[in-house]
Design a protein that fits this description.
With about 250 residues, the protein is α/β, with parallel strands linked by helices. It has one domain: Spore Coat Polysaccharide Biosynthesis Protein SpsA, Chain A, CATH 3.90.550. It is built from 8 helices and 7 strands. The relative contact order is 0.16. The model has no long low-confidence stretch (mean pLDDT about 90).
Length: about 250
């Protein structure tokens, strides 16, 4: 726990057997995490078997691949059902350092931000960490466009390392979002549209063969989807509409 609040880490996983143990060990090293929930999206390796051998890990396996967004929907549903007050998503591919978990959780637990992103752009280390130049340029261009459309000032919208307050997740209509990579972008648009503040913390990252990454064609589709999302929410904002929040379940 942190400040008396239950901290749950969720890991959307797909073929993560080679890096899962290292990620898990560093996640648990802080002594703050109450539970890890790993959702295996029909991996073809031993991800689920390895996860079940780890202490304090709840494992859910999709019988068929539901996509990155579909995986996250299961992650957040299970985390809320487990009584999480703070939910941190980190990929088990070890691309992001778990060392930032205490800082991210503290920003949420203190009430400063209900949503915190670990930004690869803040600090200027993305390219040094091995981010391909074309991904860096597309990240910067998309972020500029989305900031203009959504009226925000984030350094990036595409980090897969995030922390959320329970109160925020309960309000978001997550099931309306894509089951693909666009989910990450849509959830931020919903957060901003509902008037919540988003905090950011600088995050070193590293690219290596075992780290998950989408290819060029998928990146193009993702980029076009991000721009479409920005225009959609810009139009809703001009019309005075906000996303219909999900009502939290009553005890």
């Amino acid at each position: 726990m942190i400040h008396g609040q239950k901290l749950v880490v969720v890991m959307p996983a797909y073929n993560a057997a080679r890096t899962l143990r290292q990620t898990y060990d560093e996640v648990m090293a802080h002594g703050l995490v109450d539970r890890v929930i790993l959702v295996d999206d029909a991996s073809k390796d031993e991800t689920a078997t390895m996860a079940r051998a780890l202490s304090n890990v709840q494992v859910e396996v999709h019988p068929r691949n539901r996509g990155y967004g579909g995986n996250q929907k299961t992650c957040y549903r299970l985390a809320l059902a487990a009584g999480a007050d703070i939910v941190i998503m980190i990929h088990p591919d070890y691309q992001y350092t778990p060392a930032l978990i205490p800082a991210m959780a503290s920003l949420v637990a203190s009430g400063l931000y209900p949503c915190v992103l670990a930004s690869r752009i803040l600090g200027g280390g993305a390219l040094r960490g091995g981010m391909p130049w074309w991904k860096y340029i597309s990240n910067r261009v998309l972020t500029l466009v989305e900031n203009l459309l959504l009226g925000a000032k984030l350094s990036e919208y595409h980090s897969g390392y995030r922390a959320y307050a329970r109160s925020l997740l309960e309000r978001l209509p997550l099931e309306e979002n894509s089951d693909d990579f666009l989910f990450d972008n849509q959830i931020l648009a919903q957060v901003i549209a509902l008037g919540y503040s988003v905090g950011e913390i600088s995050c070193p990252t590293k690219y290596f063969p075992e780290a998950s990454s989408i290819g060029f064609r998928a990146s193009v589709r993702y980029g076009l989807g991000c721009i479409a999302t920005g225009f959609r929410w810009r139009r809703r904002r001009l019309l005075g509409r906000t996303p219909a929040p999900t009502q939290p379940a009553k005890d």
